[in-house]
Amino acid sequence: MDSDGVKAQRISSKRLIGKVAVITGGARGIGAATAKLFAENGAHVIIADILDELGAKLADFIGGRYVHCDVSKEYDVEQAIQCALNWKGRIDIMFNNAGIAGLGGSIMNHKMDEMRALVDINLYGIVHGIKHAARAMIKGKIGGAIICSSSSAAIMGGLASHAYTLSKEAILGLARSTACELGVHGIRVNCISPHGVPSEMLMSGYRKFLGNADLKPEDVGKIVGGKREPY
């Protein structure tokens, strides 16, 4: 095959050419690895995070956009999606990835304000993402894919803090429920539940419970962008 043929084959193999993706918590870890993978496959990526310096640097590196976004604030998430609409006129992929690990310890000593703060980010942040991504996708009449980050802690007890486990278990139910509602509009809602991924945020906590980690952030990024049905 000549060089032009090889180049054409390489371009055609990029599954996400022209697609627009918003990734919350996209400045580092799983989010950053996914942002790079999506961009490599031709997607236009908006990184939404509170880590402004890291997020802006990564967005510049992959040719994307960065927007400051605290997912616990519905307005911030709505504006992140609006950024995609203003930039490319559409949103095809919403990766609800932002989250925090929370504090450990006995349930008998939990401070409820700290638990609520974690749930605001880990759970309600995803509610905000699904809500506003679905609105934009339905209005655009092109369908789409919404991916939510849960955790193996939602399936197996004793792997993480009680607050973190609570939030990640709730995400599983939310994904199932919204998938049933939104499927008729051509919108797929899926959930990933990584186990032992050495992201910067979770490394110390996972080492305590699991010992050596099983996966790298790049491995989970490949799961998010894995070849199943076309986006």
UniProtKB/TrEMBL annotation:
Coiled coil: none annotated. InterPro entries: NAD(P)-bd_dom_sf (IPR036291), SDR_fam (IPR002347). SUPFAM superfamilies: NAD(P)-binding Rossmann-fold domains. This is Short-chain dehydrogenase reductase ATA1. It comes from Abeliophyllum distichum. Pfam families: adh_short_C2 (PF13561). Belongs to the short-chain dehydrogenases/reductases (SDR) family. Signal peptide: none annotated. GO terms for molecular function: oxidoreductase activity, acting on the CH-OH group of donors, NAD or NADP as acceptor. Transmembrane segments: none annotated. Keywords: Oxidoreductase. The keyword Transcription regulation does not apply. It comes from the Eukaryota. PANTHER family: 3-OXOACYL-(ACYL-CARRIER-PROTEIN) REDUCTASE (AFU_ORTHOLOGUE AFUA_6G11210), SHORT-CHAIN DEHYDROGENASE REDUCTASE ATA1.
